[in-house]
Predict the 3D structure of the following.
Amino acid sequence: MTLRPARKLAVTAAASAALLTGLLTWQAAAADTGSDGSGRESRPGAAVSDTATGKESRATPGKGSDTVSSKEVEHSGTSAADYWTPERMRKVQPAPMPVVER
């Protein structure tokens, strides 16, 4: 069976969209479940209860831990303005730009 190019493009686009939708749905569902499979987010220091024993413990990051820890930091807009004084602006060096070799 031979498909016209326009029809082949439409079929390929539809299949790609269906695959992408399925993968994104799977990824979102995986992100919604915590590492314990309970459906809640695991956070360092958060109380974690063991359903088998009923005991509750604190999640602590450390060696062998696959928990991602994060810290909220609040910055005001004036802190950056205070940091970049005229003297610092004169001494600043531009960041090296990547060079594409052909």
Q: What stands out?
A: The mean pLDDT is 75.
